[in-house]
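Minimal example, chain plus 4'-deoxy-4'-aminopyridoxal-5'-phosphate.
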Amino acid sequence: MALTDLSADELRDFAATQRAAYDDLVGKGLKLDLTRGKPSAAQLDLSEELLSLPHGHLAADGTDVRNYGGLTGLAELRGIFAELLGVGTDQIVAGGNASLTMMSDTLLYHLFHGGVDSENPWGVEESVKFICPVPGYDRHFSLLEHYGIEMLTVPMTPDGPDVAAVQALVADDPSIKGMWIVPTYANPSGAVCTLEVASALAAMDTAAPDFKIFWDNAYAFHHLTDEEAKSADILSLAEVSGHPHRPIVFASTSKITFAGAGVAFLAGSTETIAWYTGHLAKSSIGPDKVNHLRHAQFFGDADGVRTHMRAHRAIIAPKFEEVQRVLRESLGEHEVATWNTPAGGYFVSLDVLDGTASRVVELAKAAGVALTPAGASFPYGDDPRDRNIRLAPTMPPLDEVTQAMQAVATCVLVAAAEKLGA
Ligand code: PMP
């Protein structure tokens, strides 16, 4: 029964039962963690062979990968990810181990020098603003905050960012220089940006002539079901709309091979690639091509990546199903929370009663269950409704996911009963 339909006496009884369940939890001395979206050891084991690669040190074109050079990255690895991301091989760079670093560098180059189509460096403008669909990825927001870029939020819908809200903002304000999008299996909402939304964003009129879409496709291949979402081809959409330099695409193998020793990619128009490597050349003589070669040998081709991702799915899909089962069975009838059922990616986004997310996280912490801080999925850590909690179930073993989720459900119910006055 919905908690709001209970009489005052019933609600008091309900609260007492949940509080007792909570006290039991605290007594158990749990030590569980649903905070960061990290691959589990079993997932990392899928790529163990990388540790005995590469065989030899020569790339297909004869490049000695041990030496300096090759700023755009090893051709055979770029070829594999160009095919997967649907871009030309001359439109992609393979870099170091972190796409976040490429995003950071790209922001700094814009601030110091301006982009391919900028009149001035962004940094000389009085203010620079970015649009942030929320809930979104906390590190995107902390990067912008760190570089003094103001953040304007728009709602993330199940089809991607709310296009009308974005259009209304960018139409008149030239200080709005860009926006984030995690187009496929968004962090944390799981949304997949539809072709319609992507087309509208690629084509929309912007007051800033050098408006950028930071298209962070971190979860492009991370399917959890047979219905494998295909990312919109943002580079082609932007090109046909007359804004070829608008999107900058990011991706990495962080959640494909090793989170700490994968390969990151940046894609864009050929001019964007020349612009990016032109700036990069000042800080690097070339990337870790040994890592590129071992990744290329490990995968073989694009299908090798697809097959590998199915092995990840076999490990993590049961954990996501378990999150759904516990939420449904523990919270469903009480109508105090809603959540998404992602078809891919690394997260479940849980919305609890307004004003109770921080309390849930606090209760969970006291019971030994670490959750991502409430508000983390919003710029400045400020969730105006204090209702969103990001759950990351990939890292703990399945039995710990069950225990942690049961604890979360109890905390949600305790906080809801408190909020309703019990
Ligand atoms: N983008 C998103 C949306 C992510 O969720 C993450 C990892 N949590 C990253 C980027 C980080 O990627 P990388 O390891 O390539 O820096």
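The chain has a mean pLDDT of 97. The two ends are 16 Å apart (CA to CA).
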